[in-house]
Amino acid sequence: MPEGDGRKPEDGGVPPGDDASPEGAARYQGPRATEVEAPAKDPEKDPSYITRTRFMTGVAIAAGGVMTAAILVPVVGFAVADNFDSEPARWVDAGPMSDFPEGETSSIAISGPDPEADRRAFVRFRDGEIVCIWNRCTHLGCPVSYSPGGDVFACPCHGGAYNSVGQVTAGPPVRPLDRFDWKVVTADGEDVATRLDPSGLRDVSPDDRLLIGVPYSLNDSLEIFKLKAPGEPLDGVLKNLYPLG
Ligand code: FES
User: Domain containing 60: what range?
Assistant: First the structure.
């Protein structure tokens, strides 16, 4: 280290460490007044640097996305997709017309896709017309029973009640009872009367046979729709949550 020349700087001396000689300048390694230190880099300004705040923000966004998808996917799928498959077209022989006398509502078990289900049709033959009513409650699907005294249908599960043609009169059912297509044929299989043209019922013979077809649904105005599941309304605001056939 340079020692100076022993004189004070104000007297023209050279201070220690400030030797102007080329040899002294080469030895000095300390900071110079002209050297400016580079500011420390702020790591939070680096987009690739993960801070705790950034990590928690990312977790919150990811969790929100998952929860939103969990809610929206079923709702959209429920609204867009048809949630109830139609039955294949077929005719089931329910027996001779002598089993379904005019003026009465008769009950008959009919097979369906689920052999375990208590599936029955109430065949109402009145005023020259036949109506085949399914015994499946349109609230949650319990089997309804027919009361000949009041000519009404009642559900034992939650108090659903229907009038003589299956329209809701009380309780939670969202639409009238579903019905089956039907037709009456001769022993040779020729059509005598159909649901769309029941006029042939005037000349029906006791030996003619009643055939029961696929079920369908109705709204409160008895307009026909593709078969719906129990609980699916066909009128009102809630019907917009369900696909219409
Ligand atoms: S299932 Fe019939 S009223 Fe609920």
Answer: 50-81
